[in-house]
Design goal:
By secondary structure, the protein is mainly α. It contains 13 helices and 4 strands.
């Protein structure tokens, strides 16, 4: 990447952080994708449409999702340069536009989730601190639909007496409320005495908090104890289960969107596939014309 490119990428990332509230990991991802493009076109600053068309050829063999992400990063980058008057044109129309199919989420049924709870609760009954911690983690993952990062970075006093919800700062640095069940509240209450008073985190580990990788490992272990293939389970799969089972229970899609912290309801709509039979039944039994035999 040329010196000129580096300066422009720095300005772009500064804008993304200040105006779009992009998180550190998001900014690092933008830098990586722009660097990858610069290796092909040589100069992002001076690249024209023919140069950008070469990216489609150079990226042949990459996953469709990777090509789509890199193209999106470049479109935003060139849009920024054009808006700021740093370029007189926006050549991003020449970038590849692969068609993406959103993958259906992996889903655990209620019996499988219950089996995990049976095993984890049985071990927590011993009063062993780590067993109590694992139960609190599972209750918050499945009971509140938290993202892995949101869960492991919860402050020590995240749950307050008489407050049945968490105030979370999720993607895009946006705040949302997440419900906390009585079960989760009780699990955290039992775990809290084992958290050092000096800790800033509800789930401490070393000098910081539990890592996402460690949480992933713990969740897979819980699944294995319940006789479920660990390959099928992750913190995000439990978040999917939270959403899927709420929808099956009659939750409104807009409410679910709010609970999950989705900026776009299209992201939430992916969960409707898992309960198509119930939706068809609702149309047949609740639609005003369902009982009209004219």
């Amino acid at each position: 990447m040329t010196e000129g490119d580096r300066a422009l990428v720095d300005r772009f990332c500064d804008m993304m952080a200040a105006e779009a509230g992009a998180a550190r990991n998001t900014l690092l991802a933008y830098r990586r994708d722009l660097q990858a493009a610069a290796e092909v076109v040589v100069s992002l600053e001076n690249a024209d449409a023919p140069a950008l068309r070469k990216l489609g050829e150079a990226w042949t063999g990459l996953a469709t999702s990777t090509v789509a992400r890199r193209s999106a990063a470049l479109r935003r980058f060139y849009g920024f340069l054009f808006d700021e008057g740093l370029r007189g044109d926006d050549p991003s129309a020449a970038l590849p536009r692969p068609t993406l199919q959103r993958p259906l989420p992996k889903v655990l049924d209620t019996q499988e989730v219950e089996a995990m709870f049976v095993e984890v609760e049985a071990r927590a009954a011993s009063g062993q601190p780590l067993a109590l911690r694992n139960l609190a983690l599972l209750e918050l993952l499945y009971g509140s639909g938290l993202r892995a990062t949101e869960l492991v970075s919860l402050p020590r006093r995240a749950l307050r007496q008489g407050q049945p919800f968490l105030i979370l700062r999720g993607k895009g640095d946006k705040e949302r409320l997440a419900p906390v069940s009585e079960r989760a509240t009780e699990a955290v209450r039992q775990w809290l005495p084992h958290v050092p008073e000096a800790s800033s985190w509800l789930f401490p580990s070393g000098k910081s908090h539990l890592s996402r990788v460690r949480l992933f490992q713990l969740v897979r272990t819980m699944a294995a104890l319940a006789g479920i293939s660990p390959d099928r389970v992750s913190p995000h799969v439990l978040r999917h289960a939270f959403a899927t089972h709420l929808l099956a229970g009659g939750a409104d899609l807009r409410v679910l969107q709010s609970l999950l912290g989705h900026a776009d309801i299209a992201t939430t709509q992916i969960y409707t596939h898992v309960d198509a039979a119930r939706l068809v039944e609702l149309v047949n039994t609740r639609h005003p014309l369902a009982t009209d035999h004219r």
